[in-house]
Specification:
The protein is α/β, with parallel strands linked by helices. Helix content is about 45%, strand content about 15%. The protein has 11 helices and 10 strands. An 8-stranded parallel β-barrel has the order 1-2-3-6-7-8-9-10, surrounded by 5 helices. The chain has a two-stranded antiparallel sheet with strand order 4-5.
């Protein structure tokens, strides 16, 4: 197990509920949130930064302030949500370091940092925890690969700054790979991705639901004592609740939910958005809290 130091242990407490289960509302999306806001006749690209920032602020005020923690981006949401007093003093702040999109090298995908954002920036923005996304294909990447070195480097940099790092992993279909081959390999890729990240020093993982109770147990074994939380990956709320219950029953430490909570509660109309976040998304958050405590 990659042991937490004292600062990291306190940070883990900050993003956990009273029962010690990790529970984070994810709102660091940019293009994905624009798509959720756009109506059937609207182009998401027409939603400007000001509109997106207003939606993120409402999402924090009317939903995430009822959760232990919120994940936000340093491009649109921060520092305004902190500086304007929108974020509750009782809700921890997780700062996403990854930029939208990815670059490709030798057929593999690599995420990029938001320009100028470092572990020190997380402190400057008032953050308690950092999060970085890596795309992984552990059937083609080992401990000597570029992605493995990138994970090691950031784990070390965050530790030096006194910041707990959430290592988020997403597996993906390779160019030329059939859907059938990828789906058959998917669960094993999630398991082996967790194993690789832990070998590189990861202390907290954010992972896709691997597909079954047996595979959740395999992830827990691969994580070797490192806590992992399941992400919603855009599935509907009812599906995610069942995934969370299964993951928790087989060793997961919590959940990090974004679109499953709020994707049908955002609107370019502020009054409609606030009503839906209060009366649709917030009850879902309560149900998710019950699921992680199950």
């Amino acid at each position: 197990m990659n042991a937490l130091n004292t600062l990291e242990r306190r940070a883990l407490q900050a993003i956990s509920n009273e029962q010690g289960r990790i529970l984070i509302v994810a709102a660091d999306q940019r293009n994905g949130m624009r798509a959720a806001m756009a109506g059937p006749e609207e182009d998401p690209k027409d939603i400007d930064v000001t509109q997106l920032a207003a939606a993120k602020a409402d999402l924090v005020e009317y939903l995430a302030n009822n959760a232990p923690a919120i994940l936000l981006d340093p491009e649109v949401a921060l520092p305004a949500i902190v500086d304007d007093g929108v974020l509750s003093r009782d809700t921890a702040l997780v700062v996403g370091l990854d930029a939208s999109g990815f670059e490709t090298q030798d057929g593999l995908q690599y995420t990029k940092f938001v320009d100028g954002v470092t572990p020190r920036t997380v402190r400057d923005l008032g953050g308690d925890v950092a999060k970085m996304l890596w795309y992984t294909r552990p059937d083609r990447q080992d401990e000597d690969s570029r992605v493995a070195q990138d994970i090691r480097d950031l784990v070390e940099a965050c530790e030096a700054e006194g910041i707990l790092l959430i290592v988020e992993l997403l597996t993906y279909e390779l160019e030329g790979e059939t859907d059938e081959h990828y789906q058959a390999a998917f669960g094993g890729l999630v398991v082996e991705g967790a194993r690789l990240a832990v070998a590189c020093g990861a202390k907290l993982l954010k992972l896709q639901y691997p597909g079954s109770a047996e595979l959740c147990a395999a992830v827990t074994e691969a994580a070797a004592g490192v806590p992992w939380a399941v992400l919603s990956a855009g599935v509907d709320h009812a599906t995610f609740i069942q995934q969370v219950r299964t993951a928790i029953a087989h060793g997961a430490a919590g959940a990090m939910a974004g679109r499953s909570l709020w994707k049908d509660s955002l609107s370019t109309s502020a009054s409609t958005r606030r009503d839906l976040l209060t009366n649709r998304a917030r009850p879902r958050l309560r149900e998710l809290n019950d699921a992680v405590n199950s």
